[in-house]
Amino acid sequence: MGLFSRIFSKNEITIEPIDLSFLKNDIHSHLIPGIDDGSPDMETTIMLLKKFIDLGYKKVITTPHIMSDYYKNTPHIILSGLDKVKEEIKKQNLAIEIQAAAEYNLEPEFEDLLEKNNLLTFGPNNYLLFELSFFDEPPRLNDVIWNMREKGLSPVLAHVERYAYWHNDYDKIEEMINRGVKLQVNIGSIIGAYGPEVKNFAEKLIKDQVIDFIGSDCHHEQHLEMINHASRLPIFHSLVQQEQILNKSL
Questions:
Q1: CA 75, CA 81: separation in Å to the nearest integer?
Q2: I need a surface site. Which of 37, 76, 111, 125 has the fewest CB within 10 A?
Q3: What are phi and psi of 17, to 5 degrees?
Q4: Inter-residue contact 33 to 41 (CB < 8 Å)
Q5: What is the pLDDT of residues 173-189, one digit of tens each?
Q6: How far apart are CA 99 and CA 110, in angstroms?
Q7: Position 130 confidence tier, pLDDT thresholds 50, 70, 90
Q8: pTM over 0.90
Q9: Residues 73, 202, 27, 37: is their CA dihedral positive or negative?
Q10: Residue 168: exposed, middle, or buried by beta-carbon count in 10 A (0-12, 13-18, 19+)?
Q11: Is 170 in a helix, a strand, or coil?
């Protein structure tokens, strides 16, 4: 509990936890064992899935990293790992569905994957989860978004609130929206897990009702503890019940 006592303000208003079965689905996590910086083994994966069930989720769409320098995952690697997780879910008779897509780093190599149509998407509108560098905006960001849209994909920007170079440039958020990019927020950001600046920016995005997807970005058990804490915050209640949130429609 030490982490959360440091994160939360003493004056934080808390209320009864919201029922996350209303949200139904999580769309950002790292649960396939041993292929990125998420779950290291099947035992951990099953433990995390049981906690998702306890929180009220009906389905998780897990999204392993694809990044050329660190996580050289392919659709084959991801889907093979997914099959093993599904087998274990069936074996243990767990009341949760799991699917897989990926979290693509918007690096130069991504454009090759895009050109070859070698991508994993989720949902009925071919949603594609992608992330940016945390240091600088990619130089060809707008061109790549255009190319994604041209190929019939619906780009979803992961943890939009965490790009510090946009915290004082809200026009970039509006530009992303105007270019057809859906915006995903991490639940951990709402409780201050990534610092006060990220929390403040997440709250602004929520209040402006521009968030489309809510994600746990679950790598480990602590991320699910964050959901439990966030579920008692009025700002999270507001977010989950906003009409534009798309988790519920997957």
A1: 10
A2: 76
A3: -60, 140
A4: yes
A5: 999 999 999 999 999 99
A6: 22
A7: very high
A8: yes
A9: positive
A10: exposed
A11: helix
The helix (H) or strand (E) run that includes residue 215 is: strand 213-215
Alpha-carbon distance of 114 to 166, in angstroms, equals 25
CA distance 76 to 81: 8
2-249 CATH, one of 3.90.850.10, 3.20.20.140, 3.40.1190.10, 3.40.50.1820: 3.20.20.140
Q: Return the domain boundaries, the chain.
A: 2-249
Q: Is-contact 103 64, C-beta < 8 A?
A: yes
**DSSP per-residue letters across 41-99:** SHHHHHHHHHHHHHHT-SEEEE--EEBTTTB---HHHHHHHHHHHHHHHHHHT-S-EEE
Q: What is the pLDDT of residues 137-147, one digit of tens each?
A: 999 999 999 99
CB 200 within 8 A of CB 235: no
Q: From the CA atom positions of the chain, what is the Rg in Å?
A: 17
Beta-bridged to residue 59, according to DSSP, are: 25, 97
Residue whose pair of structure tokens reads 């918007």 in the numeric block = 106
Contact 166, 194 (CB under 8 A): no
Residue with structure tokens 């965490």?
Answer: 162
Residue type (1 letter), 173: I
Sequence length of the chain is 250
